[in-house]
Amino acid sequence: MVPHSNLLSSLFRQQFSNDNSKRRSHSLDQGNQRIQSYFPTKEELDKPIPETYPSQPPSQRKKSTNLVGSLFSKAKKHPRLKRAATLIETTANHYKKSTKDIDKTKEDLLEKDDNKNDDDDDDALMPSVLGIREDDVDRMQQKNDLIRLAFAGEFTRPIDEQTIENVLDIGCGPLSWAIDFAKEHPNANVIGMDCLNMIPPETAMDLPKNCQLVIHNCLKRFPYADDSIDLCHVRFMNASLNMDQYCKMVAHCWRVLKPGGYMELMEMDMMVYSPGPVTELLNNQVIETIRTLGLKPRMARYLRDVLPQDAKLTDNLITEFYRSLPIGVWGGRLGVLFRDDLIYALTHARHMDSLVEQALFENQLLAAEKELEQCKSYSNFHFLRVQKPF
């Protein structure tokens, strides 16, 4: 189903402000100029799509980088950056604030039994099936802001949020969501969990006093007591976890979640809707490649299946919906961001052995970019909130 005009209007007519304007890509600026009227005219659609990177072909726009290389690169750029404070360490020295109450909260959260058996030692967590890009931190922060705008008003929880004490954000990345929540709920203790520290130096220097990072593999038993967390938040993990791993991560969340607490899941369906013929061909190739790696590219459509089978859940405890968001310049900044993600996925999910094959793929990418505008392609983002029974 094509996205509703009311949703698109809320996306395209909002005024975006960003103090870090120097980091905006040329692509985003073009998107802003292009969507002053969010439905392009026929004359505009017939024009060639603006080239984001004039000096590079599409498949070379985002250089592939392995995990180790990315970490060394970031370490060289920020040699003075230290790992952010974890749940069981003293509060970081990079901010001078009173932390007496926070330290007490940390002690209450920790598991009392240190001899718990962990049978998950062999579980390796993959940060992303497509690897990590140099600009991933900036893109994650920007995507957080745009997703929040796109889903404005949709995340209202049926509780008094001022009573929330402990929040866990799994797969937190650069802590974007966690920091926003911590600022809006100064009395809550917000913990971001990830297997990597992706916090930018400028962010690490000014973390809210009620927000911290713990480095932990989400496939292993969480280091928190049973029934100690009010809200567990999970977003965009289907590119890192297969179905069994996702269920295991959810089970860990369920154990630490308080009765009456909430768990929120959001994932993107990797199927491109309203595609042109070339876009559909390339998208199917990516989906098949991801499946061969053991992942489920359309897991977003089956979020109910990852919930604990013995939880005795009823429909009144579950809220589930999806929203359609644009891909391409026609969708403004959000659309350009998702377009670049799609181009990156199309490029890095295949291996080309010859220059002829590479040239053919370049032409297919150019055709796909034009189809995104002409067909107004979009993706579906699925959201599920579940309350743990009392």
Structural topology:
Layout: H1 5-12, H2 26-34, H3 42-46, H4 67-77, H5 100-109, H6 136-150, E1 166-170, H7 176-184, E2 189-194, H8 201-204, E3 211-215, E4 229-235, H9 243-256, E5 257-268, H10 277-292, E6 318-326, H11 332-348, H12 355-374, E7 378-387
Parallel strand pairs: 1-2, 1-4, 2-3, 4-5
Antiparallel strand pairs: 5-7, 6-7
Helix pairs in contact: 2-11, 10-12
Report on the architecture of this protein.
This protein has helices spanning 5-12, 26-34, 42-46, 67-77, 100-109, 136-150, 176-184, 201-204, 243-256, 277-292, 332-348, 355-374; strands at residues 166-170, 189-194, 211-215, 229-235, 257-268, 318-326, 378-387. The chain is α/β, with parallel strands linked by helices and 390 residues long. The chain has a domain at 64-326 and 380-387: Rossmann fold, CATH 3.40.50.150. Helix 2 crosses helix 11 (332-348) and helix 10 packs across helix 12. It is globular and about 60 Å long. The two termini are 38 Å apart. Residues 1-42 and 44-102 have low confidence and may be disordered.
